[in-house]
Design brief:
Largest sheet of chain B: 2 strands, antiparallel
Shape of chain A: flat
Number of strands of chain B: 2
Strand content of chain A: under 5%
Helix content of chain B: over 70%
Structural class of chain A: mainly alpha
Largest interface: A-B, 66 and 61 residues
Largest sheet of chain A: none
Structural class of chain B: mainly alpha
Number of helices of chain A: 7
Strand order of the largest sheet of chain B: 1-2
Order of helices and strands of chain B: HHHHHHHHEEHHHHHHHHHHHHHHH
Oligomer: heterodimer
Radius of gyration of chain A: 24 Å
C-alpha cells in the first residue's frame, strides 16, 4: 500500500472523526468551565464540574483517536454498507422542514404533509391509504388533545387548529 | 404485621377505579409497545409522561410502571412469533422461542414466557415489599458523599455493560453529565451553556432528549433497511405447557427470577443484562447445551423470568435511594418529579399510600398481563401484521405530539429532532445512547452531591474514601474501570455487553 493510500484510509476512518468531534466538544466544555469560574476545592464554583467533565471528555476522545490511529477502524463507507442511506436523509429533511414550518403553519398544516411525505417517500404506501391516514390521524390527535385533554397544539400565524 | 397492614392500604389505593383504569392502560400500552418492533418502553414512557400530569401522582406512576413491566411480557410475543425482538430485553428469547414456534410449539413457548414472567414478577414484588422499607431506613443516614459515589458507580456499571468500546461509553456518560448541567446553576443561579436562549435557562428537558435519542433515531435506523418479518401463521393452540415442559422450566424460572431480581437492583443493570445472564447460566448448567439455539424451552423460561424479575428489582434503588439504576427508571423519576415528589429514603414514610399503592398495582397488573397475553394472544398476532411503512410515520407523529405536550413549547420539538439526528449518527458510529441519558439525569444530582461533600469536608477529598459505603462504591467503580484493561476481564465484558436500545 502506498503512503498516499495509507493517508486516505486514515482520513476515512470513522473512529478518528468520532474522536475528533469528541475532542472538539471537550475543549469547548473545558473553556466554558473556565469562563464560569472553577471556584476552589473548599467551595467549588459553577464551572468546577464542567471543567473536569471537559477534561474527561478530552481524555476519552483522545483514547478513541489513538486507538483509531494505531489499530485502524471501520470507514464511513463500511458503516453504511448495504444500508439505504438515502431513506434516513429523506426523513431528516422532512423533519427539518416540519420544524421550520411548525411555528408559522401550525400543527395541522405542518403535520398532514409530513405524515403523507413519510408514507410515500420511504416504502410507498398506496395513495388510497396514505391520504386518509395522513389527514385523519393528525386531525384526530389534534381534536383529542384539544377537546379531551385541553391541550392546544401550535395553530401558526394562519390560526388553523 | 406492619407489612400486611401496608399491603392492605396499598390495595385500597390500587383498587380505586381510576387507578385500576390507569393500571390497565399502562399494561395494555406496555404489551403493545413490547409487541411492536421499533418502539420500546423508553419511547412509550416518554410519550406518555405528559399524560400522567392530568391525574394524581399514584395514577400516573401506576401507568408508567405498567408500561415498563407490560413491555417485558409483550416483547416475548414478537420474539417467539416473528424472530424480531419487540424490545431489547427479549433479544435472547428469539433464539429458542422462534425455533420452538417453527417446530409447531409456539403455544408452549408463549405460555411458559407468560407464566415465567408472572411468577418472576410476583416474586420481585414480594421482595420489593420486604427489602425496600428496610433499605430506606438504612439510606436515611446516607450523606452527599455516599450519594455521589453510588451514582458514580451506577454510571460506571452501565458503561461497563454497554456494547462496544468502553472509552466511547464513558465519553457518552461525560457528555450526558454536561448536558444535564445546562441551565441555571443550582447554587449560584448563574446560567451555564445557555447561549443566551431563554428556553435553556431551565435546562434541556428529559423527554425531548430521550424521544430523540431512542424514538426518532430508532425510526431513522429502521428506515435504512427493509424490515422482513417471518411471522408464524399457523394457529396457536395449547398455550399451557405440558408436564415435561414444566419439569424442564422449573429450575430456569427459579434461577432466572433470583438472578434477575438482584441484577435489577444493581445500578446500571436491568432487564436486558438479566435476560442475557440467565440464558448464559442455563446453557452452562444444562446437561445438553447443544439443544440451546434449537428450541430449548429453558432458553425461553429463564430469560423471560429474569427480565421480569429485574423490572421489579429496578424499583428498589429508585424508591429507596432516589437513584434510577437505568434509563427506564430515570424516566419514572421524571414522572415523580413532575408531580413534585422526590423518591428517596423518606418517601415510603411520608407517602405510604403512593409506595404501597404502586406495589399493589403491580400485583394487579401482573394478573392483567396474564389475561392480556394468553387468551388474547390472537389480537397481538394480528397487530404484528401492521406494516412498518404505515407504523413509522405514526410513531414520528406521536413523538412530536408527546414532546410538545410535555412542555407546550415548540423549542422542545426542535431539540427532539436535533437529538434524533445526533442519536442516529451516534448509533451508526458505535456510540450507545443509554449512558448519555442516565448521566443526563444523574448529572445535576452528581454535581450537587460532589459540591456539597467538598463544602462539608472543607475541600478534603478523603471524605469519599473514609466513609465505608462511599469507599466500597468507588473501589468497585475503579475495578470496573481498570478491569477491561485485563484480557480475561475484557473477554467477560464482551460476553455480557449489551445493546440497551429502546
Amino acid at each position: 500500500m502506498s503512503a498516499d493510500s495509507n493517508v486516505k484510509v486514515r482520513l476515512n476512518n470513522s473512529e478518528l472523526w468520532g474522536g475528533l468531534i469528541g475532542l472538539g466538544l471537550g475543549i469547548f466544555v473545558v473553556q466554558s468551565g473556565l469562563k464560569l469560574k472553577l471556584g476552589t476545592i473548599h467551595e467549588p464554583g459553577p464551572g468546577f464540574v464542567l471543567f473536569y467533565a471537559g477534561i474527561l471528555i478530552c481524555a476519552f476522545a483522545a483514547t478513541i483517536m489513538i486507538a483509531a490511529l494505531t489499530e485502524g477502524g471501520p470507514t464511513f463507507g463500511s458503516r453504511w454498507k448495504d444500508a439505504r442511506w438515502a431513506k434516513p436523509v429523506i426523513v431528516i429533511a422532512c423533519l427539518t422542514a416540519f420544524a421550520f414550518a411548525l411555528d408559522s403553519l401550525g400543527f395541522l398544516l405542518a403535520a398532514i404533509p409530513l405524515t403523507l411525505l413519510l408514507m410515500r417517500l420511504i416504502d410507498p404506501v398506496r395513495w388510497s391509504l396514505a391520504v386518509p391516514i395522513s389527514i385523519l390521524v393528525p386531525a384526530g390527535m389534534w381534536w383529542l388533545l384539544k377537546q379531551a385533554l385541553g391541550i392546544q397544539l401550535p395553530s401558526g400565524t394562519i390560526g388553523i387548529g | 404485621m406492619d407489612t400486611l397492614v401496608n399491603v392492605a392500604h396499598g390495595f385500597g389505593v390500587a383498587l380505586a377505579p381510576v387507578n385500576l383504569l390507569y393500571c390497565f392502560v399502562g399494561v395494555f400500552i406496555g404489551t403493545l409497545v413490547g409487541v411492536l418492533p421499533g418502539i420500546g418502553p423508553i419511547s412509550a414512557m416518554s410519550l406518555l409522561l405528559p399524560v400522567t400530569l392530568s391525574g394524581t401522582p399514584e395514577s400516573g406512576i401506576i401507568m408508567m410502571a405498567g408500561i415498563y413491566y407490560g413491555s417485558m411480557y409483550g416483547g416475548s410475543t414478537t420474539s417467539i412469533l416473528v424472530n424480531i425482538p419487540g424490545e431489547a430485553a427479549s433479544v435472547v428469547t428469539c433464539i429458542d422461542g422462534h425455533q420452538m414456534a417453527k417446530q409447531g410449539r409456539a403455544g408452549p413457548a408463549l405460555g411458559i414466557a407468560a407464566f415465567g414472567s408472572f411468577i418472576a414478577g410476583t416474586f420481585a414484588l414480594v421482595a420489593l415489599m420486604l427489602v425496600a422499607p428496610k433499605l430506606a431506613s438504612v439510606a436515611v443516614v446516607f450523606g452527599p458523599a455516599e450519594y455521589f459515589s453510588l451514582m458514580a458507580l451506577g454510571l460506571v456499571v452501565l458503561t461497563f455493560l454497554t456494547q462496544g468500546s468502553m472509552a466511547k461509553a464513558l465519553l457518552m456518560a461525560c457528555i450526558g453529565v454536561v448536558l444535564g448541567l445546562i441551565g441555571l446553576d443550582s447554587i449560584t443561579a448563574q446560567p451555564r451553556l445557555t447561549f443566551g436562549r431563554l428556553e435553556l435557562m431551565d435546562g434541556i428537558g428529559l423527554v425531548p432528549v430521550v424521544m430523540g435519542l431512542f424514538g426518532v433515531a430508532e425510526v431513522l435506523l429502521n428506515t435504512e433497511q427493509v424490515i422482513r418479518r417471518d411471522i408464524i401463521n399457523a394457529k396457536i393452540t395449547r398455550l399451557f405447557p405440558n408436564k415435561e415442559d414444566w419439569k424442564a422450566s422449573a429450575g430456569p424460572v427459579g434461577r432466572g427470577t433470583i438472578l434477575g431480581f438482584f441484577l435489577g437492583i444493581l445500578p446500571g443493570g436491568g432487564a436486558v443484562v438479566a435476560s442475557f445472564a440467565s440464558y448464559a447460566l442455563e446453557k452452562r448448567l444444562s446437561g445438553t447445551p447443544e439443544r440451546f439455539g434449537h428450541g430449548a424451552i429453558e432458553g425461553v423460561a429463564g430469560p423471560e423470568s429474569a427480565n421480569n424479575a429485574a423490572a421489579g428489582g429496578a424499583f428498589i434503588p429508585l424508591m429507596t435511594l432516589g437513584i434510577p439504576p437505568n434509563v427506564v427508571m430515570a424516566l419514572l423519576l421524571g414522572a415523580f418529579v413532575v408531580h413534585g415528589l422526590q423518591p428517596g429514603p423518606l418517601m415510603i414514610a411520608q407517602n405510604p399510600g403512593l409506595f404501597w399503592g404502586i406495589v399493589a398495582s403491580m400485583y394487579i397488573g401482573n394478573l392483567m398481563l396474564l389475561v392480556l397475553n394468553l387468551p388474547m394472544i390472537g389480537m397481538w398476532v394480528q397487530l404484528l401484521k401492521l406494516p412498518y411503512n404505515i407504523l413509522f410515520p405514526l410513531i414520528i407523529l406521536f413523538t412530536i405530539i408527546g414532546v410538545y405536550c410535555s412542555s407546550n413549547n415548540v423549542f422542545d420539538v426542535y431539540v427532539m429532532i436535533a437529538f434524533g439526528v445526533i442519536g442516529y449518527f451516534m448509533r451508526k458510529l458505535g456510540y450507545e445512547p443509554a449512558p448519555l441519558v442516565l448521566a443526563f439525569v444523574l448529572g445535576p444530582m452528581l454535581e450537587n452531591n460532589l459540591r456539597k461533600s467538598l463544602i462539608l469536608s472543607q475541600g478534603d477529598l478523603g471524605i469519599f474514601f473514609t466513609r465505608p459505603i462511599s469507599a466500597v462504591c468507588l473501589a468497585l467503580a475503579l475495578v470496573l474501570l481498570i478491569g477491561p484493561l485485563l484480557p480475561s476481564l475484557r473477554r467477560k465484558r464482551e460476553l455480557v455487553a449489551l445493546d440497551e436500545g429502546a
